[in-house]
């Protein structure tokens, strides 16, 4: 069920092609050209149960203007909730919250996660000093146990939501199918390198009766096979609109016990025209 929960969190990190734009500095300032305060995205979540696709829950992603440490900033919040029939298998009530400056520098991240019988709270605090990014992390467990960690990096480190905000402002027009992207992410306990592969372009009809022209990416993990050799294993395939909004409109998650999908249901408060729309039935 570990991968099942990733389906809900993948909405926050599915635009992470930015690392291949070349030479990122630890000072993570970037120009926001993709979103405004007031943007709201809603997703329908589905799970494949014995050859039958059934709705498993919903997720909502909201962006707002806030003030943090006396600086004008943005916040992004993600709420993922499973339906009752899924709760009997694996209950999820996840709330993610991220704050970053108007120049898209990560400042703070929190994830409160009720996943099955497990409840944890992850926090990450970002600081910048002498050209380095310093990330202090804390994971608190239900029994009161706390794990602390601190990492220093000479490249940008992001959380699951601030990485989305930054990535949405980059243009992947020079990408070729098969290009590989590496990027660092704070997970609550440590900073981990992730691998993303660009697959090309494809058209897809979302749950809002709209067909989009999309960029397709795959998130892969390195797994050991029976012989102990590392092998790439695809975890998620996702579809992102090929326009300045760069909206994630579909995610396919490959599970040990089946598969799951997330489809865009509605979008409000978008900053840019939806030039990736191929057809709409409305």
Helix content: under 10%
Q: Return the average pLDDT rounded to an integer.
A: 81
Structural class: mainly beta
Which outline best applies?
Answer: globular
Largest sheet: 15 strands, antiparallel
Helix and strand sequence: HEEEHEEEEEHEEEEEEE
For the termini, the CA-CA separation is 37 Å
Describe the structure.
- The chain has helices spanning 2-9, 84-90, 162-167, and strands at residues 40-49, 52-68, 71-82, 92-101, 106-115, 118-129, 132-141, 146-153, 180-186, 191-205, 210-224, 230-241, 248-255, 258-268, 277-280.
- With 282 residues, it is mainly β.
- Residues 1-5 and 15-25 have low confidence and may be disordered.
- 35% of the residues are buried.
- It is globular and about 50 Å long.
- The protein has a 15-stranded antiparallel beta sheet that branches.
Give the helix/strand layout.
Elements: H1 2-9, E1 40-49, E2 52-68, E3 71-82, H2 84-90, E4 92-101, E5 106-115, E6 118-129, E7 132-141, E8 146-153, H3 162-167, E9 180-186, E10 191-205, E11 210-224, E12 230-241, E13 248-255, E14 258-268, E15 277-280
Antiparallel strand pairs: 1-2, 1-14, 2-3, 3-4, 4-5, 5-6, 6-7, 7-8, 9-10, 10-11, 11-12, 11-15, 12-13, 13-14
Briefly, what is this?
This protein is mainly β and 282 residues long. Helices cover 7% and strands 57% of the residues.
Main attributes?
282 residues; mainly beta; 15-stranded antiparallel sheet; 7% helix; globular; disordered N terminus
């Amino acid at each position: 069920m570990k991968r099942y929960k990733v389906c809900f969190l993948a909405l926050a990190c599915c635009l992470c092609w930015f690392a291949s734009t070349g030479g990122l500095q630890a000072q993570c300032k970037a120009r926001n050209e993709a979103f405004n305060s007031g943007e709201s995205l809603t997703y329908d979540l589905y799970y494949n149960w014995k050859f039958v696709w059934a709705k498993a829950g919903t997720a909502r992603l909201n962006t707002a203007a806030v003030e943090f440490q006396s600086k004008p900033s943005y916040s992004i919040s993600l709420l993922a909730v499973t339906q009752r029939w899924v709760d009997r298998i694996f209950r999820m009530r996840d709330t993610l919250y991220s704050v970053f400056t108007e120049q898209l520098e990560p400042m703070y991240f929190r994830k409160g996660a009720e996943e099955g019988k497990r409840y944890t709270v992850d926090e990450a605090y970002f600081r910048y000093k002498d050209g380095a990014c310093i990330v202090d992390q804390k994971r608190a467990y239900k029994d009161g146990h706390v794990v602390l960690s601190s990492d220093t990096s000479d490249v940008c480190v992001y959380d699951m939501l601030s990485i989305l905000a930054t990535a949405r402002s980059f243009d992947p027009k020079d990408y070729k199918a098969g290009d590989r992207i590496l990027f660092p992410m704070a997970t609550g306990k440590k900073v981990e390198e992730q691998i993303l592969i660009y697959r090309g372009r494809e058209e897809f009809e979302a749950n809002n009766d709209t067909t989009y022209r999309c960029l397709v990416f795959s998130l892969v993990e390195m797994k050991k096979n029976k012989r102990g050799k590392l092998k790439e294993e695809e975890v998620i395939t996702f579809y992102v609109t090929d326009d300045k909004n760069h909206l994630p409109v579909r995610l396919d998650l490959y599970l040990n016990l089946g598969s799951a999908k997330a489809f865009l249901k509605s979008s409000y408060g978008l900053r840019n025209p939806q030039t990736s729309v191929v057809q709409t039935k409305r």
